[in-house]
Amino acid sequence: MSRFKIFASVIPLILAGVFARESLSPQPQPCIRVGNVAVQMATAPWQSQSRVSFTDNPAEATVRVQIVETPDNADFTVVDDIDGAEPDACAAQAATRYIGIAKATTALQPIIYLSSEPGDFRIFVQSKTFSPQAAAALVVGAGDDRARVAAAAL
Q: What are the tens digits of pLDDT across the range 66-99?
């Protein structure tokens, strides 16, 4: 009988451990390489070195990012759902720049308007880990020099 009590008390602990491991293990964050520097989405507000925000009003935007339908029309393309991806391409290092998405806007941070209308950047996203918002935040947060970002993405 005591074995059954021990077994019955251990099962909830095992289940709690399995669920905790699933929710506490760090999920891979969207990341791009620009030259020799990795640019990654911040996981905590204090971690971000640069912040961007999004708006639904094109008049408030300082940067317009167009989502395009084909990679041929894009300045920046994210397709990471294929086999053979480089697992350590964006490993965190001292030079990693972290980008955060802020809810409130300030005069110093870019405000992104994301749409299918022509814009400053054109992105194509086909990914399980990147949302169009994350891709736009990384591209804009990497710097305002579109030629440098587009050339590094090739």
A: 999 998 988 888 877 655 555 566 666 667 888 8
How many domains does one find in the chain?
A: 1
56 domain residue, yes or no = yes
Residue 113 lies in a domain: yes
CA angle 21, 27, 28 (to 5 degrees): 150
By the 10 Å C-beta count (0-12 exposed, 13-18 middle, 19+ buried), 32 is classed as buried
Q: Is the pTM above the cut of 0.70?
A: no
Quote the CA–CA distance of 118 and 50 in Å, as a whole number: 25
Instruction: Tell me 129's DSSP state.
Output: S
